[in-house]
Amino acid sequence: MRVMAQMAMVMNLDKCIGCHTCSVTCKQAWTNRSGMEYVWFNNVETRPGLGYPRTYENQEAWQGGWVRTPRGRLKLRAGGRMKKLVTIFSNPKLPSINDYYEPWTYDYETLLRSPATKNFPVARPISLLSGKQMNIEWSANWDDDLGGSTEHAVRDEMLKGIEDKVTFEFEQTFMFYLPRICEHCLNPSCAASCPSGAIYKRSEDGIVLVDQDRCRGWRMCVTGCPYKKVYFNHKTGKAEKCTFCYPRVEVGIPTVCSETCVGRLRYIGLVLYDADKVLEAASVADDQELYQAQRECFLDPFDPEVQRAAEEAGIAADWVEAARRSPIWALISRYEVALPLHPEYRTMPMVWYIPPLSPVVDVIKDTGHDAEDADNLFAAIDALRIPVEYLANLFTAGDVGPVNGVLRKLAAMRSYMRDINLGRDPDESIPASVG
Ligand code: SF4
Ligand code: SF4
User: Fold this and answer.
1) One GO MF term, please (predicted)?
2) pLDDT tens sequence across 311-339
């Protein structure tokens, strides 16, 4: 066992209200300067939706992440050393400014100077990059306006195979928010893609950083990251990315996005893992087993054997204590309510999510209850507004079983808390099979 420590985050998606406070405070702290206008180290996506940059999940198009060879090895989708060189000198697969969105302001003068007319005047957007008037067709979070409706759903690659569930029935549309930062992966393909060796993973806490002095602006990291969380600063000619707010974390305060999150949904902390298991876990044959393989890399910080191995690995006792106090291991491994985003990219991401339980449609219609009563628990899980298949495409490479398992636990927890608040005995009402 080779114990290492890693900073990680778990986000509880039921609590995200899409206010974008996290994105704005992150921007004010880290990317509020020339060359970074389009950059959001933290962004909050509307789901269903195209994401930011748009369609970043289409790895065939953008060539991010790792693929498993028939012999069980991992190789970068963007290719090996030779292909890397060829790609550098040809045209790397890079999102354009239109895929991120061209930042703009409004031509407020048009409004102010407009003569009285029958209709409201329209403020035209003005590009912050060129200063010219723009005709915008798409921008981040415009998916909100579609509210997950069919027009959008059909365009969304991730909904392939479940169109039946959402076809042309507006009362069954659904949406939720997915906040995203760099995943500070255990097996980061951004670092493996970099020809200059400028991207590195800190051994003490696993935070992935770009050495600005070594970066030569090849942008292979932008191609190589399947989550598209490395950005090119076109003023400095260097790559930049989320730093997990390491200057704050080092003095014991949380990341800006966590501290300012209105929904209080971001749990951060240290987790211990067995570094000897990571490559093997990232190489398992079945995409649907990857989330569990990664989970098995995490170590129980309360296990005396793990504590001994941590000490031998030079991890300070107060760091092990921090891992014990952290909610990360508990949410991922003890209670098994958190799942990784797109484990099939094989980078072993370290931002995990508690999937949204979402409102229950049928139960409300039939009984007036909202699934927080134990009587409705199992009926409720079959009547969720967000299709479980959709969540499974995000978190378990399409396997609905583990997502169902998490949702049952969340429903049981709601029911348990309701019983307590109503002065009832929860042990009487929660079915033992929920666990
Ligand atoms: Fe690298 Fe972050 Fe992308 Fe993972 S999510 S590959 S650590 S930039
Ligand atoms: Fe969601 Fe919190 Fe960000 Fe608001 S601040 S969008 S609640 S993650």
Assistant:
1) nitrate reductase activity
2) 999 999 999 999 999 999 999 999 999 99
Model confidence, pTM:
0.89
Helix, strand or coil, per DSSP, at residue 180: strand
- Residue 83 and residue 193: Cα distance in Å, rounded? 11
Distance between CA atoms of 351 and 258, rounded to whole angstroms? Answer: 12
- Contact by Cβ (8 Å): 384, 357: yes
At 125, phi and psi to the nearest 5? -70, 140
Check: CB of residue 379 under 8 Å from CB of residue 329. no
Query: Given 1.10.10, 2.40.50, 1.10.3650, 2.60.40, which CATH number is that of 355-434?
Result: 1.10.3650
* ipTM tops the 0.85 cut: yes
| CA distances for 179 relative to 228, 235, 328, angstroms | 14, 27, 17
State the CB neighbour count (10 A cutoff) for residue 221: 29
Domain 265-353 CATH (choose: 2.30.40.10, 3.40.50.300, 3.30.70.20, 2.170.120.30): 3.30.70.20
Helix and strand numbers, DSSP H then E, in the chain: 22, 14
**From the alpha carbon of 263, which atom of ligand 2 is closest?**
7
